[in-house]
Amino acid sequence: MPKHILVAYVEDKPGVLNRVASLFRRRAFNIESLTVGRTEQEGVSRMTIVVDADENMARRIEANLYKLVNVLRVDDVTDKPAVVRDLALIKVSAANGRRAEILQLADVFRARVVDIEERSLMLEVTGSEDKIEGLLNVLKPFGIIEMVRTGIVAMARGAEAVSANPPQVAAEVSEPELLDSRLALAHSV
Questions:
Q1: Which CATH architecture has domain 1-79?
Q2: CA 106 to CA 122: how far, in whole Å?
Q3: Which CATH class is domain 83-149?
Q4: What angle in degrees, to the nearest 10, is found between the helix axes of 55-66 and 16-26?
Q5: Residues 6+ apart with CB under 8 A from 141
Q6: Cα–Cα distance, 10 to 174 (Å, whole number)
Q7: For residues 35 and 46, what is the distance between their CA atoms, to the nearest angstrom?
């Protein structure tokens, strides 16, 4: 099943993440990756949700997200030109004089060394899922001690911004007024 990347702008309030996760649980949608962080707008967080879903299922997920009170906007960026990144920290065994070989591989994948110990080193790599999977595959023979990934973040390319606010001419309404109107609209639904 194809992956869909949904970007949801939500009010930065307690319980919002739980409501979103509960929606996925109730509808039996599996979340492959979920990343949440602050945005340029105070009081608004951005969720990047990766799901295994066909086109029809992705539209249903989007519609269900809009039913949640604290969701301000949802965009499917799957087929849009976008920068999609993941970050991984990988602790790998560097025993038996294999450190130089690991460092060469890290250089090929543009990974940074963030910690070195006598018998291990930790790499930080940022990029596409394929790039990270590729690095993990070449490091497996050395012995991966520990690994963690942040999950995908995505942003549409180009000058246009995808934000919690609908597109407006900047001179018409100030940014705080736009946010206030969206938050008021979300509470009235």
A1: 2-Layer Sandwich (3.30)
A2: 10
A3: alpha beta
A4: 140
A5: none
A6: 20
A7: 8
